[in-house]
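Let's practice the habit of predicting before peeking. Look at the sequence and jot down your guess about where helices and strands might fall. Then scroll down.
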Amino acid sequence: MKIPDIRTEYRNANLTMTIVILLSLILPYFVYVKEVDEKRLFFQFESLPSHHKSVTGESCSSSGITRSIKSFYNGFFNLSLFYNRSGIFFFLILIVQLLLRLVVFNLKSHLVPWVDILQILFTIFLAKYILDLNYCGISVL
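Done guessing? Here is the structure:
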């Protein structure tokens, strides 16, 4: 059985994912979080309250990730871990994915897209596993 050659489609998808990852890494600079930021810049917008917490009154597994990442960006690593232990983990996933996008962009093998699809699925399952552990109150980091 011959594996189809999807390099052209993969190159377009890879470029799109690279742009999305870059935007995800830059976006926290445009969010103002009063618990973390010392002053509000003119281009920052207010972070949204948790819909899950407003409805149920309980925090969900992703509560505090924005504050965690903002704290990490500002150099407050202990505060970042306090808000949500998964924040630093998701930041590292974005960095690794960005590096993989840039490295794989120049490879010419027809198997590269298929290997990349498998590693993306693995990353998604790993992220879900980390969030589930964090939600159950188990310390991940």
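How did you do? The CA atoms of residues 68 and 80 lie 4 Å apart.
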